Amino acid sequence: MMVTVIVATCLTFGFALAIFLIYRHQIQHYRKMSEDRNLGLSEEIVPQLYSYNDLQKATRSFSEELGGGAFARVYKGAICSGTRIIAVKRLEKVMDEGEREFRRMMRATGRTHQRNLVRLIGFCDEGSSRLLIYEYMSNGSLADLLFKAERQPCWNERLRIALDVARGICYLQEDCEPHIIHCDIKPGNILMNDSWTAKISDFGLAKLLMPNQTGTFIGIRGTGGYVAPEWLKNTPISVKVDVFSYGMVLLEIICCRRNIKLEVPSDQMILYE
Ligand SMILES: *[C@@H]1O[C@H](CO)[C@@H](O)[C@H](O)[C@H]1NC(C)=O
Ligand SMILES: *[C@@H]1O[C@H](CO)[C@@H](O)[C@H](O)[C@H]1NC(C)=O
Ligand SMILES: *[C@@H]1O[C@H](CO)[C@@H](O)[C@H](O)[C@H]1NC(C)=O
């Protein structure tokens, strides 16, 4: 009797212990898996929110300026303890749209993943500051390559770049939901990474600077020489305006000159005439 009770108790105890251990192991396994997945998600898909202080540190108080335009200045910086180089774009004239709209748009832009689009890593909106953090493109713009370099790129290189840009535009028009009209395709907005892959920058900004893009009419924002004729006539625009600008860029890639050049005889000034 005694022996039976002891054996039964031991068996029950051992059984319970085994179940407990298996259960704990599985919980740990599951936790680890979901952690991995979360990390992957936040790294890969969602652009991160940065504080202004972080960015001030990352860019050493905005000391190294890479360039700028009418509506933004761009600074070089580094995150991940200096291992990842970034470009920080500081918007100067943003329509007052409210934080939620800005964040919604950042998320939409951050979801675009294509090798020919410059990757949005994160953003910051504190008070009136609006900053965008992009991957750093080390080899300058297509404008530098076509108009400033000593050596013209060879035909194979030019063909590759033309295809790269076309793929980027195609993605914006066909695979993005809703479609993104870039509104300012030009060699200055096409950047080169270390291995000379061409990537389109500044997509998605048109809407930020011109909130009424979803309507039928949008004020002209493009750059002279690249603006589609229907836009100049105040008629509704579509993704086709980017196709027109791309055609112009293609001509420039073929001829290695700007589409408007002042220092040549007047009959050659405008490339497409
Ligand atoms: C340049 O971009 C392409 C496409 O995203 C990528 O495959 C390649 O690794 C990049 N080059 C460097 C040096 O980062
Ligand atoms: C472009 O990339 C190549 C190879 O990575 C590098 O040697 C060259 O200096 C870069 N050019 C510019 C203008 O940064
Ligand atoms: C945008 O459209 C709305 C209504 O259609 C109009 O009231 C507003 O003034 C427009 N904003 C700009 C900046 O054009």
From TrEMBL:
Membrane topology according to the record: Single-pass type I membrane protein
Residues the entry annotates as binding ATP: K89
Presence of keyword Mitochondrion: no
Signal sequence extent: none
Record localization: Membrane
SUPFAM superfamilies linked: Protein kinase-like (PK-like)
Keywords: ATP-binding, Disulfide bond, EGF-like domain, Glycoprotein, Kinase, Lectin, Membrane, Nucleotide-binding, Receptor, Serine/threonine-protein kinase, Signal, Transferase, Transmembrane, Transmembrane helix
Top-level taxonomic group: Eukaryota
Catalytic activity as recorded in UniProt: L-seryl-[protein] + ATP = O-phospho-L-seryl-[protein] + ADP + H(+); L-threonyl-[protein] + ATP = O-phospho-L-threonyl-[protein] + ADP + H(+)
Domain Protein kinase: 60-273
Keyword Kinase: yes
Family matches, as InterPro entries: G-type_lectin_kinases/EP1-like, Kinase-like_dom_sf, Prot_kinase_dom, Protein_kinase_ATP_BS, Ser/Thr_kinase_AS
EC numbers on record: 2.7.11.1
GO cellular component, one term: membrane
A Pfam match: Pkinase
Any one GO MF annotation of this record: ATP binding
Stated family: Belongs to the protein kinase superfamily.
UniProt name for this protein: non-specific serine/threonine protein kinase
Source organism (scientific name): Cinnamomum micranthum f. kanehirae
Lineage of producing organism: Eukaryota, Viridiplantae, Streptophyta, Embryophyta, Tracheophyta
